[in-house]
Write a structure and sequence with these properties.
Low-confidence stretches: none
CATH topology: Rossmann fold
CATH superfamily: Uncharacterised protein PF08960, DUF1874
Helix content: 10-25%
Structural class: alpha/beta
Mean pLDDT: 92
Number of strands: 5
Number of domains: 1
Strand content: 15-25%
Strand order of the largest sheet: 2-5-4-1-3
Order of helices and strands: EEHEHEHE
Oligomer: single chain
Distance between the termini: 11 Å
Radius of gyration: 14 Å
Largest sheet: 5 strands, mixed
CATH class: Alpha Beta
Length: 114
Amino acid sequence: MPIYLANAFSLNMLPDKFDGFIRVKRDIQLDTVKKLLQNNFINAIGHEGTAQLINSLFGLTLTANRVSVKLSRGDIVLIVQLKERLPEGKILNTDEVLDLYNQGKIQFDFVKVE
């Protein structure tokens, strides 16, 4: 049961012939995220500013890691999610991501494939 840390979730992450359920818990607490990240996890954060936010919150040393994720039953994805849509083409730097987090505009979501 791998745990992925990502900045997005897409139905393309599911197998092509997927017939199952996806359990979602929105806006989970930081202590829950920290507990889940204590085990081995796969970094799928594709944005450097978001990786730096994770580093500052949890004392990690991640860098952006743009990888394709294919999920199976039992897999978990922790998603760092913006609560608002950015202007088209806007790329946030680390300070902007931290500022959005401090304003309560970033949340963590939990997805489990069942």
